[in-house]
Amino acid sequence: MVVTLAVFAAMLVLVIVRPRRWNEAWWTALGAAAMLVLGLVSPRQAIGAILAGKSALLFLLSLLALSLLVGKSGFFDWAAIRCARMAKGNARSLYRNAFVLGAIVTAILSLDTTAVMLTPVVLAVVRRLKLPAAPYIVLCALVANVGSLALPISNLTNILFADAFHLTFAAFASRMLAPQLVALAAAYALLRWHFRRELPARFDGESIPEAAAAVPNRTCFLVCVAVLAVVLVGYFLAPLARLEPYAIAFAGSGVLAIAGAATGRVRLRALGELSWDLFPFVAGLFVAVQALDNLGIVGVSSGWLRSMRPGSPEKLLAAAGAAGFASNIMNNLPAALIARSVLLNSHAHTGTILAALVGADAGPIVAPFGSLATMLVLALARREGKEVRTGSIVMFGLWAAPVIVVAAALALALSFALVR
Predict the structure, then answer these.
(1) All residues at 6 or more sequence positions from 327 whose CB lies less than 8 Å from its CB, including other chains
(2) 376 has pLDDT over 90
(3) Which residue in 343, 314, 410 sits closest to 157, CA to CA?
(4) CA atoms 289, 292, 296, 298: torsion sign
(5) How far is residue 143's CA from residue 105's CA, in Å, rounded to a whole number?
(6) Residue 20's beta-bridge partner residues?
């Protein structure tokens, strides 16, 4: 037990610290290899753990391709400029617009897209308008996490849970609508209050170009908008055709790739721009969590969960709180993988499953390493010469996370009380 926990803890520390600036994938892969060499997990178990998540990994690949191709169309730049122009010089309206845009992008293209593609665009607009960067950096990090409850595609943790518990796209979306809206409302209110002194009343909008100037090719852009609309509808209809949701995303990516190639916006080398490192990163975590499972931790936790009344508000709050706390201690992806094993082992009620996701998705906003999206936002901000002190993030998250998670979990409990 001690060796397994020590290897797992060392792996997490190395992922967070990133010695020699090595990618996170190196450390999870090395951690998994160490567990195999030490006999903490068998090769059969390791392969089984990875194969069990193959649908989730294919969905992740399809989303990464779709997001990259949407970016090539100029969609994110166009949307950010539209937000600025719609604010009409009102800096607080701009802040609200940026939050809404982040929530929409996170919902339909995942939190990593918000972190990697939308954050640099938002920071470029803020720099151009000479506005303080810190409120927008925290906004991007917060909305990437809190806005990822809505759909199975919004977060890798959602994909993993929807696949493991056979939740259809429509069933997931209908149950998570109320908690998502409540979480977003709470997050925005807390952000506005927290940055009330830093957000100016007005900005000079004279330097903002026309939104059309951000579109390099109109045909490619229009195809992108149409594909996004069709893909979103397709996710809901996929079960009727007995298709996996990733098939819809791959089809959308194929159309965008053809349109991009025909208009000169996409070249074959774009394949190198995909975040391929996410796959060994996730696969390494699958193996590491399997080693923890071998210790019996999952069995003990499952017993604790079974002792509570099925579907009760206190059980939903406990599941959300435990997942949120674990996510801030070890990062939300390994926390979600452990929670998934516990929930499968305890034959958990759907409400408890979704409550754990509320904690894993919206909860990791205390520690800067709580989620990969937060780490990416802060890294991109540093690259732009904009730093947000770790202490200020932690202090904000310490009181914001409980409020958001509890509010969203209660909304989820109420939805189950009203509609069984």
Answers:
(1) 335, 336, 359, 360, 363, 364, 370, 371
(2) no
(3) 343
(4) negative
(5) 10
(6) none
CA distance 234 to 251: 10
Least confident of 117-126, 267-276, 297-306: 297-306
Neighbours of 339 (CB within 10 A): 31
How much is the pLDDT for 311? 66
For the stretch 153-177, what's the b/e string if a residue is b when 16 or more beta carbons lie within 10 angstroms of its beta carbon? bbbbbbbbbbbbeebbbeebbebbe
CA distance 32 to 13: 14
Task: Provide the residue type at 194 as one letter.
Answer: H
Segment (H or E) for 141: helix 134-146
Residues 6+ apart with CB under 8 A from 157: 332, 333, 336, 357, 360, 361
For residue 42, give the 3-state DSSP assignment. coil
What distance in Å separates the CA atoms of residue 297 and residue 294, rounded to the nearest whole number? 8
The structure tokens 């009727």 sit at: 240
Long-range contacts: 226-233, Cβ < 8 Å, 24+?
227/252, 227/255, 227/256, 228/70, 228/108, 228/252, 231/66, 232/108
Q: CA quadruple 23, 29, 30, 35: dihedral positive or negative?
A: positive
Q: Specify whether the CB–CB gap between 236 and 173 falls below 8 A.
A: yes
pLDDT (tens digit per residue) in 50-78: 888 888 888 888 988 999 999 999 999 99
Residue 56 to residue 279: CA distance in whole angstroms: 11
Rounded CA separation 156/230 (Å) = 22
Two tokens, residue 171: 């069933």
- Dig out the tokens for 282 from the structure: 């996730």
Q: What confidence tens digit (pLDDT) does each residue in 331-357 have?
A: 888 889 889 988 988 888 899 999 999
* pTM, two decimal places: 0.89
**Location of structure tokens 């774009």:** 270
Q: Is the pLDDT of residue 1 over 80?
A: no
How does the average pLDDT of the chain come out, rounded? Answer: 89
Say if CB 395 and CB 158 are below 8 A apart: no
Cα 364 from Cα 315, distance rounded (Å): 20
Distance in angstroms (rounded) separating the CA atoms of residues 218 and 299: 56
| Three-state secondary-structure class, residue 317 | helix
Report the C-alpha gap between 57 and 406 in whole angstroms. Answer: 30
